[in-house]
Each structure stands twice: as C-alpha cells, then as structure tokens.
C-alpha cells in the first residue's frame, strides 16, 4: 500500500460540525480525457450568451463561468466545492493550526448576535480585553444580528496588521464597548490536558492539525511525569470536527498495538484504495523523529474512555472507531456526526482548486461511518437532566445530497429519531448555555470517571426510553 509521504489528508471542520477529509497533493494526477456531452455544452453556451445579451445588467464573463463551476461541483454532495483564492488559502492555513485574524472562538447567541465563547490566550482580542460571554453587535459598520458564523469569520479574517472595529455588548455594562483590533497570525493549540483527580487524567483534542500529534505526545509525557501511576485516561473528542488524518492515525496508534490497521479508504481511483497502519510512515508529516517514540509504555495499557458527541466528525470518528473496534476504550456520549468521506484537493490554478469527494473511509472492522457515525458503548447525556445543546446539532444524514452509507441501509425513521426530536424541543425550551469541557460542571466527564472507577454511570434519558420500548415489545400481550 502507498504511504503518505507526499500527501496530506485533512478534515477541516466548518459550521455546525460539518467536517471534510481532504487530500492535498503537489503532484495532482491528470484526469482522463472525458467524452464531452456536446449538446449540453451547447446549451451552456446558449445560456451564457443569453445572460450576456439579455440580462438587466452587464455581468463579467469570469463571474459567470466561476459560478457555473461552483454550482456544478456543489451539486454533487455537501462537501465537494470550488475553492476561490480566499477559500483555498483559508483551508491550507487551518490545517497548519494557524490563521490571520483576531483570536477568538465564537458561536451564535440565542438572540442572533455573535457570542464570544473564549478569546485565545495572548491573541490580539485577548490583549485588547475581549471576554468570554461578550456579544459582537457590529463588525466595522455592519450590524451582525442574523449574520451567519461563516460570514462573520470572513469579515474578521484579513491581512496581518489590518484593523477591524468590534462593537461589543457586555453584561453589566450600560453602554456598548468599542474595540479597534489589528489582525495577527494566530497559532491555535488543539490539545489540552490535566490531572482531574489523583490517578485520572483528561486529554482533549479540539481539532486534528499538523502540530496535534507532537502536542499530544508532549502532553501525555507531562501527565505521566505528574502521576506515573495513572489508573485511567479520558480522551475528549467532543465537538472535534476533524482535521489532519495523519494526526488521527497517530493519536490512534499511541494507544493501540504496534502496526495495527487504523482506517481504510475506498473509491474509484487506485490510490483511494488504501489501508493506513499505526506506523510512523503513515502518521509522520515530515522527516522528523517519531513523536510517539517518547511515550511511556503505560500509555498502551491505561484504561480509557473516549468522549464523543454529535459534533465529533471525520478524523475524530476515525479515532473513536478504531479504539472501539479493538476494544481499547469505552466510547461514551452520543452518536457522532457521520462524516465518512474523503475529499481530494485538485489545483486548477496557483490560487484556486476543486475539493472533490473521492472515497469513503472505514473502521478496522470494515464499518462505514458515512451518514451513520460511531454509536457509543454507553449513551450519556450532556447534562444530568438531558442532552442540552447537543440535541440541536445537525448530522451528516440531515444534509441535503449527503453521500449514502454503502455498508448499511439507512432507515428513514426509527424510535431513536422520534426520541431525539423530543429532546430537541426540550433543549430549546431550557435554553442551555455552552458547556465548558473539562470543568467541574462537566457531567459527561464525571460519568467517564465513574466508569473508569467501576461506579454506576447515568445513562441518557433517550437510551432508557429505548430500553423501555424494547422491553414492552418483548412482553406478551395481555388477553
């Protein structure tokens, strides 16, 4: 099988947990000469001519043709797309764990404003005094109420040194606050770790980026230096939208037997039919020392829980699926997003490219994750009294034109779907606030620790309801 020395497979997250797995290749293979459908191409030329001659305003040729390409690719599935100069640059930046911007994590507030989840430490926003919980009401002179997260991110990105004005509404402040902030290159840290109580550690991977494997290895070494006799480890992949596939292979390999198969892919192209193993040639991005060589032997045997939710997608599903197939860890949380396809980046010009779905990926036991996701071993709600905001998330199967699962037949409706719809309504009524992962109020983390200690785990309300339905079906009818 081929290795990954000259390619970088990545799965970058976008809004609502939608993730993609991508392949960059410096030597993109030349496609076979297609047999062109001349009649349809004549129709395209006729429509182009009609727009040029009859449309109410003049339209640039380049804009028409670019939009035609964009529409053609976007019609295939939710993850295929035409990447213009800006989108292509942002995609490459994101995989490297850096971007030019203000340095804030954002979400949508209940009333339609952009909410600051947290400023990134030592970023321009952090130094300017932006705080978690602040609401952005204007970006420069543009009101943001009703603006999508994607559009707001685009407005906050830009050239290094350029400035943007944020108008902020802050609780307990009578007047709006105005901050003028210069954009800088931001270095993101995707790995966090700490000893949550004696003998038990929490390791969070927020996104799989190029530095993730090195960062994770360093964090594991630090954890074992603090407590050489760890009795349990929680790997937190909640809301991890994906990332560099080599990172997912390496993270899996850190905890699995040497040379274990981690993930396989299959598609039309010969180079899309591959099996990726837990060896440095498959997870190393550069010719550097093996990041996993420094890990203590105890890492391979420490009891583990992997936390996932509906926001766990793509590369994070690869890790969860591999550790589940080998029975190396107990998966706790809710059904994952179900992003199980690979997109390949094909450059069109120096600054533009097409992102095209070219393969599906599979767990070591051959399970297809596409439009299904990873089912936890133990379903546990986000909060003690329900699944909170997690119930409101969209899955791959909810996306229009999503690629079908080729191993399992998709069911249109079942008991779980109906119960989850009820949970969505409850979550909306309760107006839950975003959860801080790893905090003392993190209910799912608490249940993961209970499992590692052999204590009872509070299962999800939906799971309890499903069990009751199943038991009712098995009871003989009274006559």
UniProtKB/TrEMBL annotation:
Keywords: Hydrolase, Protease, Serine protease. It comes from the Bacteria. InterPro entries: ClpP/crotonase-like_dom_sf, CtpA/B_N, PDZ, PDZ_6, PDZ_sf, Peptidase_S41A, Tail-specific_protease. SMART domains: PDZ (SM00228), TSPc (SM00245). The keyword Transcription does not apply. Residues 88-157 form the PDZ domain. The keyword Protease applies. Transmembrane segments: none annotated. PROSITE patterns: PDZ. NCBIfam families: prc. Belongs to the peptidase S41A family. This is S41 family peptidase. It comes from Janthinobacterium fluminis. The lineage of its organism: Bacteria, Pseudomonadati, Pseudomonadota, Betaproteobacteria, Burkholderiales.
